[in-house]
Amino acid sequence: MANLDLCYMSASELGRLIRRKKVSPVEIVDNALARIDEVNPKLNCFCFVYHDEARARARAAEQAVMKGAPLGALHGVPIAFKDMTPTRGKRTTLGSYIFENWVPDHDAVVVERLVGAGAIMMGKTTTSELAMTGITETKLWGITRNPWNTGHTPAGSSGGSGSAVGAGCVPLAEGCDMGGSIRLPAAFCGVVGLKPSFGRIPFDILPSQFDTYCHFGPLARSVDDAALFLSLAQGHDDRDISSLATVGAVPHSVPGRVKGLRLALSVDLGYYAVDGEVERNLRAAADILRDQGAIVEEVELGLTREINDIGYKHWFAYAAAYIGPYVEQWGDVLDPFILMMVEEGRKMSAVDLKTLEFDRTRQWMKFSRLFELFDGLLCPTAATPALPVGTSDLDWGDTDAKGRYHQYEMTFPFNLFSACPALSMPSGFSSTKLPTAIQIVGRPWEDVTVLAIGAALEAATPWLKMRPPI
Questions:
Q1: CATH architecture of 11-260+442-465
Q2: Of the residues 157, 158, 163, 197, which is catalytic?
Q3: pTM
Q4: Residues near 362 by Cβ (< 8 Å), separated by ≥ 6?
Q5: Domain-wise residue ranges, the chain
Q6: Which one from 12, 24, 82, 424 is the annotated catalytic residue?
Q7: Less CB within 10 Å around the terminal CB: N or C of the chain?
Q8: 181 is catalytic
Q9: Active site residue 161
Q10: Are 393 and 408 in contact, with CB atoms under 8 Å apart?
């Protein structure tokens, strides 16, 4: 059986122990593989596990340590990559029969940089089909489950990464976020998830390099691990024309200082229907930050579900362009939600698409006024705890008679406001012992500020170290 103390150690701490020769990369990798083998049959969080390759890389990492060779910040530390992200010579299916046998001839930039820093790739984690739905359940790979309760979903689209980190398989996993696909699995699985500000990490994996709502980021054991991931992965690369030429440094250990920060609090963003236990835990987390010297004030944002509708219409157009050509051949095995998106996207004109940019700008001008008075926004990551397995995105999205929007995600608006970093942190537990989460949204490109707020909350909440029952 795996050593759970080692399984639940942070990537930052594992790296320190390796560099001090207190523990061997071989021991760490063997332990991680043992944990994966124990829980993956129950969780289905990995679609590929590289036992032999990971062990070989661990032996090489151990030799480098013993020889006194230069070591990267993640030398010998296990990591997982999402089955959406190209990895040279390894099948990358995107969770779809369309790409079932695709073997990329290149690594994504994020893979190059993290493996280049010494991380050892343990395998590829499951994703919802084409990363287009919020529930990780595909016809190709089946149902991925939540480590806190296997009758519930880890969300999506980076559900396998969230489940793997939550279950102690790896301390750090990569995800991509185009509507909440990092933050929602983090929320449902009780881990840390960061959508960095747009352009910090090159996003080079889609046919278009000109969308402005796509982000790579970490699912992590701790805020310091998220900061470490960001510090290693960020920076311009010509493969993503939108990646930032200049980015601020990110410390590997983030001081949790919030004294004097002004933070806005919104339970519902003005229009969501929010579970009472999610609200209770959000308010408790805000009180913790108040106790540490932050000034927290509840606000009315004046937003409406129009911002979500704008986001979905962008996705509809994208789905029609990207997946539409495959529908005739593969329609029988595509997720019904994706087929709906393609159908709706085909109805849109070029003028409709350009008008969305005007609508998006108007919503941003309204929201941006928040930052004239506040350093950040506190709100839920998800309106509910983890949903039962079998839930479909088609089950959500109604507005009730009181104008409340019944949607589990509360993340999509901040992909449309993509320059704003957004960090998901555990906020507590529901009465059914499922995690809830707080979302910390910052000013454009002020990633370190949201990490500092998260670090302050993390330091004051010992229940963050709780382990799921699996």
A1: Alpha-Beta Complex (3.90)
A2: 157
A3: 0.98
A4: none
A5: 11-260+442-465
A6: 82
A7: N
A8: yes
A9: no
A10: no
